[in-house]
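Entry type: protein chain
Record version: 2
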Amino acid sequence: MKKTLLATALACISLSEADAAEQRFIRIATDNTDLILQVAPNGRLYQSYFGEKLLHENDVENLLWDIHAGSDGSVSQRGWEVYGGSGNEDYFEPAIAVTHSDGNPSTYLYYVSSSTQQVDGGTQTTINLRDDKYPVDVTLHYVAYPKENVIKTWSEIKHQEKKPVYLSRYASTMLYFNRTAYYLTEFSGDWAKEMQMSTQQLQPGKKILDTKLGSRAAMHMQPFFEVGLDQPADEQKGDVLMGTLGWTGNFRFTFEVDNAGNLRIIPAINPYASRYELKADEVFTTPEFIFTLSHEGTGAGSRNLQAWARNYQLKDGKGSRMTLLNNWENTAFNFNQEILAGLMKEAKHLGVDMFLLDDGWFGNKYPRKNDHAGLGDWEVTHDKLPGGIKALTDAAKEAGVKFGIWIEPEMVNPKSELFEKHPDWAIHYPNREMYFYRNQLVLDLSNPKVQDYVYSVVDNILKENPEVAYFKWDCNSPITNIYSPYLKDKQGQLYIDHVRGVYNVMKRVKENHPDIPMMLCSGGGARCDYEALKYFTEFWCSDNTDPVERIFIQWGFSQFFPAKAMCAHVTSWNRNTSIKFRTDVASMCKLGFDLGLKELSKDELTYCQEAVANWKRFQPAIMDGTQYRLVSPYESNHMAVNYVSKDKSQAILFAYDIHPRFQEKLMAVKLQGLNPDAMYKIEEINLMPHTASTLKANGKVLSGDYLMKVGLDVFGFAQTRSHVISITAQ
């Protein structure tokens, strides 16, 4: 047997060397960026270049694979291995670690073959690697989107050993840089405090960003990063890598500066408590790592990712979005059929497209009167809603709006009929006292029976009530009591198989109900990854709807997402701010409302109605146009952003005075993305009734060139004041 394995390994190496001679370089290219991999004489695959696109094909031949490694490089020749294994001559963090069935913990991967094929929007490159001593195969996938300058990559691991092997590292990829300095911008926070940006210089050693939440990727740390190369990331200039992992669970980004000052970046599933048993011929697929290397700052990088998401990743990325009125901030759990019917009429009066019923509509033995009971029992509460969901869809139809509904199908309250019948369906310890997050447990989605049940929640509602037009899908708890009754002695697979089970359900919903729009929600913005957004049209950014805080939260999320993916609602949070300011902040994303119209004055209601109409009028620019962040709230007491339609005939500017200092110097806001030769009419919109614009340029016609080079004076000294300005080509 050993002789057979050795012969196979030698044949593999010979094949590698033959293919390497034919194709030494593998080029993964967008319009602006080259990622060039090289098969070295030793048969292994290395990164030889990652940067601005090389204009001359012949220059590729001059690239070297053996990057100087410091003093140890003179002793052991090595380079930047594309998918480095543990136990080899590289002394730093590996991409893959396999413990083979005989106990050997080393992995050496050699090039076997590669191929390319055209896919929607780009080119997919597939590279096959194999260990020379063990029948372990790794397939690397890269999809390059030339126009959007985005690359996504993932890996597949499998083997043919007689017994299972164990994976303790399983990165999506590895990327390397050799620059003078590296500046990491991370996105951290907590509930109601999402996407707080901070920057630090990376020093020798490892910096790790990760989470251990299980059922969601984000809360304490968000699954995004920016690395400024040579200098801190800037909005309009410099090289910056912007990356995110498509994984709705534990993630880990490793940033390691080595002894020679090189940086390696490793995006991966967090291996915490996840030593994965892999059977023969079973394929372990890593999450997609999505990145762009911008040579014109984070602004251009964001526009790359936003365009890519609308075109290829976000569900119904090119479709329109509905405005809505939600009942949660207005009623919480305290509603009935009559109250909801009245709110639907308010939704119509406001001018929005849909009424959204939130939490509290289900459970009979344990009715959902608070968050202590009922989760898992997805039957309408009879005494609260005697006519069922159909009566609500009928009332919505009569009012002239669509009807949407809230669900949290992955969760269960211990006080529920579901838990009484199937306690083994919930993740919890068999022999310890349970601890809870928001009085609930997470259903074990590694279990196929549980997957069927969770899918049935959505499927049954839609089969029985086909006029339901929208779902708000919530996930309020991370995994607690971390033990799977289903997996038994394979607990190292729980964190991974649970997330895969979540995707199985979401995929079934999309396949069988492809046209239903859905909001991804998770105790605020704790689910916001691009893998889940394959199945959702939008996500909830934060439970914090204070407009001042939302300016910062939405600024952070806009680094990676288009406005049409980001839900923003007008609520009563921070009543010290005007209804205009709250509405104007929400209007730069997907607009919704979550308040009762009765709490508004006549003028406030009139304003909101006009703001909704204006948002719908400018939806093509806001939702599908190009975004330019102009003034950062992190760098001033103000914020400004403008959107430009695809044909540059229409633009809209949002400008906010947050907390200006007394008599501080105010600068004009220079717009971006306009046609310099076109003439644009300037008009301030979203004005309160009986209020005239104070904008000096209001009503004027100015050239795009003037607006971009001279700009508009829109900032002032008042606290929490906003301006929304229409810019229309004449």
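Comment: The first strand starts at residue 25 and ends at 29.
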